[in-house]
Amino acid sequence: MADTKIKWGIMAAGGIAGQFVADLAFAQHAEAFAIGSRSLDKAKAFADKFGISRAYGSYEELLADPDVDVVYVATPHPYHKENVLSVLRAGKPVLCEKPFTINASELEEIIGYARANKLFLMEAMWTRFLPPIRKVREWLAEGRIGEIRLVKADFGFRIGWDPEGRLLNPQLGGGALLDAGIYPISFASMVLGANPQQIQSTAHLGETGVDEHFSVLLTYENGVAASLNGAVRLNLGNDAYIHGTHGKIHIPNFLSANAATLYVDGEEPESFTDDREARGYVFEAEAVSKALRAGLKECEEIPLDESLAIMRILDQIRGQWGLRYPSEA
Fold first, then answer.
1. In a 3-state reduction of DSSP, which class is residue 193?
2. Is the dihedral of CA 231, 233, 238, 242 positive or negative?
3. Is the confidence at residue 329, as pLDDT, over 70?
4. Which are the catalytic amino acids?
5. ∠ at Cα 32 (29, 34), nearest 5°?
């Protein structure tokens, strides 16, 4: 790996896989090398579209390729545990699309296997690696807005009514929390930590039994709080705010942030703008390349213990609603 590009294997040929692979074209240290799908025709079509060298009609063939350095798991999240473990058992590092798993117990098993076998594993929380978010972390580390008191973040969109589709189907782990809500909750964890003292939430469970929108209040020491919202049947503002004793930070469309503005009391606003051509997945891919070259087993921007703590928060929130998925029965 030291002298050549990291060769990525892509597990699944859906929409998110296409976005990730399109961004790999902007990477200096990585390339999309092989695609594995449950359909050879679909794999070949995906390979032709993105200029990928090798196409396989099964995940097993992809994992058997000795030239694949790392695998991006882009399957629906109910299959993440099985798929990630299959990659790890093949001895390959893994970047797994969010949410990591359906629940914390599944993630504990995956992390345990990766650590026991000294294999790299990371959740694909791509927002963490965007240049504006990195700048926000710098501002916070410098104490530019004083003591943080409140975080507000929303991510929601309105889909059409499709009870069999992934976002509304309980068999597929549907609902706003795992698909959309993980972003504001992970953002709050980045800023305030993943161990709130209290979790309060409410949700609208729709006709299929999954949450169509929700609100969460995380409370930390000294009254510090995070107010978070997510939805798959409501369009939300999708901005994030961090309020401190000496100012605030505003991140428009924080999920795929292209800009962030710092407001310090008594000073002119300071803005950071990212004019990237890529969508932004390239930054997490390059972070994986860097970690693999350094021989690391996880990434400091989104460590495994934090991913697990976030999943436990999601479990507790769903528990307050009485929402369990069929796979958890």
1. coil
2. negative
3. no
4. 98
5. 135
